[in-house]
Design brief:
Elements: H1 2-20, E1 29-35, E2 45-47, E3 50-54, E4 59-64, E5 70-75, E6 85-87, E7 90-94, E8 99-104, E9 110-115, E10 139-141, E11 144-148, E12 153-158, E13 164-169, E14 179-181, E15 184-188, E16 193-198, E17 204-209, E18 226-228, E19 231-235, E20 240-245, E21 251-256, E22 264-268, E23 271-275, E24 282-286, E25 292-296, E26 307-308, E27 312-316, E28 321-326, E29 332-337, H2 339-344, H3 359-362, H4 366-375, E30 384-386, E31 389-393, E32 398-403
Antiparallel strand pairs: 1-32, 2-3, 3-4, 4-5, 6-7, 7-8, 8-9, 10-11, 11-12, 12-13, 14-15, 15-16, 16-17, 18-19, 19-20, 20-21, 22-23, 23-24, 24-25, 26-27, 27-28, 28-29, 30-31, 31-32
Length: 405
C-alpha cells in the first residue's frame, strides 16, 4: 500500500511539474513572426502542431507551430473576422461573404460550401458600425453547427453537409459566439436582447433585454456569452456585464462599469475574467455573486478573451500589448509589446502609457482611431497556448509565436 501511495504522489508531482511548464511567468521571447498584408481580428487556433487563423485579406492560413512556416493558405471572397473551429479532420469557417466552408485541415481544400447569409453574398457581411469588429464564430456540438449571421438569424446546420436544421430570426445583427448549457443555446444580439433557444428545435425559451445607456439606448449585446454555475455571462454596450439565470432569464447579478464597455468575458473554474474597454482593467470576479477578487490595471482597452496556464492568465489589448498576469493575485508579471506599439506609441501615448493631452486633435474621427489601432499592432483576439508556445494575432497583420526565455 505504501508503495502505491508513493507512486501516486510521484505521478501527481510529475504531472503538476509538466503542467507548470506551460506557465509563462517571465517575459517570453519571440520564437517566430509571420506577416500578412492586412489586419487580423480572428483568434489563432492550434491543433496538432498547426496554427490556423484568417485575416482581412480574405485568406485562411495554416502555419507550422514549431517553425512558423506556411503549410497552406486558402483565399476566400470576403474579410475573415471570425475564428475557425476544428472538429476531427475538418476546419469550419464562417466567411465574411456569407459562405460557410468545411475545409480539410491537412490540405486546405474545401470539402463543401453553403451560403449561410444571403445578404452578404458577393459583398461584405453587414456591420453595425465601425466598432463591430467581429463576425460570428461557429459552435459545434454533436455534429450540429450553430452560427449567428449579419441578417439576424441563429441557425443550426448539419455538420456533414451544411443543410439547415432550424433557423431563428432575431431583431438585428448577431456577431458573437453562442454558448450551450444543457439543452439550451444562448446568444446576444445587437437589438439589445439575449436569447435562449431550445437546442433541438430553435424554439424560444426566454429572452432578456439590456438596461440601455444614454449613448447606447439599444444596449447592444455585442459580447459573446459564456455559461456556468447557473448563469449566462455576457457584456453589453450599455456598460454592464450581466449574469443571467440560465433557466429563467432573469439577472442573478450585474456589474456596472463606469467608463465604457466590458464585452470580453472568459469563465475559468469559479472565476469570470472580464476585460473592460474604457475602464482599461482586467477584473477577476466570483462567478457566483460577482464579487471582485482582484483587478489588474493594464491601462489599455481589452476586447479579446483570456487564455490560461496553471498559474497565469494572458490577455491582449487593442493598443499592442500582451499581458501575463498572476491568476491568484492579479499582479502583472510582464507586458509584451508588438512591433507596432514599439514603433508608434509616442504618436498617441506618454511614457506612462496614458493618452497624450492632445489626443483629441490627433485622432479626430472613428476612422482615425481604427488606423491608429492598426498601426499599434492591436490584439483584438484571444491568445492560444500549446506545446510551450504562446501565439497571438494582431491588427498590424503579424502573427507572433512566443516561447520561454
Amino acid at each position: 500500500m505504501r508503495s502505491l501511495i508513493l507512486l501516486f504522489i510521484a505521478i501527481t508531482i510529475r504531472g503538476y511539474a509538466q503542467n507548470s511548464e506551460a506557465d509563462f511567468e517571465r517575459m517570453p521571447a519571440i520564437a517566430w513572426k509571420f506577416r500578412t498584408p492586412m489586419p487580423i481580428f480572428s483568434s489563432p487556433v492550434i491543433n496538432e502542431g498547426v496554427v490556423y487563423f484568417g485575416g482581412l485579406d480574405s485568406t485562411l492560413y495554416a502555419l507550422d507551430l514549431s517553425s512558423g512556416n506556411l503549410k497552406w493558405k486558402l483565399k476566400t471572397n470576403g474579410e475573415i473576422r471570425s475564428t475557425v473551429v476544428v472538429q476531427g479532420k475538418w476546419l469550419y469557417l464562417a466567411g465574411g461573404n456569407g459562405v460557410f466552408s468545411c475545409i480539410d485541415k491537412a490540405s486546405g481544400k474545401p470539402e463543401w460550401r453553403v451560403v449561410y447569409d444571403h445578404t452578404a453574398l458577393f459583398m461584405a457581411e453587414r456591420r453595425y458600425d465601425f466598432a463591430d469588429y467581429y463576425h460570428s464564430t461557429p459552435l459545434i456540438q454533436e455534429e450540429v453547427i450553430y452560427l449567428g449571421t449579419g441578417n439576424g438569424r441563429m441557425q443550426a446546420l448539419n455538420a456533414h453537409n451544411g443543410n439547415v436544421i432550424w433557423s431563428f430570426q432575431a431583431g438585428d445583427i448577431i456577431h458573437n459566439t453562442p454558448a450551450i448549457a444543457g439543452d439550451i443555446i444562448y446568444f446576444g444580439c445587437f437589438d439589445g436582447y439575449v436569447y435562449a433557444l431550445d437546442i433541438r428545435s430553435g424554439v424560444l425559451r426566454w429572452k432578456f433585454k439590456s438596461i440601455g445607456h444614454q449613448y447606447f439606448p439599444h444596449g447592444e449585446m455585442q459580447g459573446s456569452p459564456v455559461a456556468g454555475f447557473g448563469s449566462v455571462f455576457i457584456g453589453s454596450r450599455d456598460y454592464n456585464l450581466y449574469a443571467l439565470n440560465s433557466g429563467a432569464g432573469y439577472a442573478n447579478w450585474h456589474r456596472k462599469f463606469s467608463a465604457g464597455w466590458a464585452l470580453s468575458a472568459t469563465l475559468k473554474d469559479t472565476v469570470v475574467y472580464v476585460g473592460a474597454s474604457d475602464d482599461r482593467v482586467l477584473l477577476a470576479l466570483d462567478a457566483r455573486d460577482g464579487q471582485e477578487r482582484w483587478r489588474a490595471d493594464v491601462k489599455f482597452n481589452i476586447f479579446g478573451g483570456c487564455a490560461f496556464s496553471p498559474r497565469m492568465v494572458y490577455v491582449g489589448s487593442i493598443w499592442g500589448k500582451l499581458f501575463g498576469i498572476d491568476r491568484i493575485t492579479g499582479k502583472i508579471r510582464w507586458a509584451f509589446a508588438t512591433d507596432g506599439y514599439t514603433t508608434n506609441r509616442r504618436d498617441y501615448f506618454n511614457d506612462d502609457d496614458i493618452f497624450r493631452d492632445d489626443i483629441g486633435s490627433v485622432l479626430r474621427a472613428p476612422v482615425d482611431w481604427i488606423k491608429a489601432e492598426y498601426r499599434m499592432g492591436g490584439i483584438f483576439s484571444t491568445p492560444a497556448i500549446q506545446d510551450g508556445r504562446l501565439v497571438i494575432t494582431t491588427t498590424e497583420g503579424v502573427v507572433y509565436c512566443l516561447k520561454k526565455m
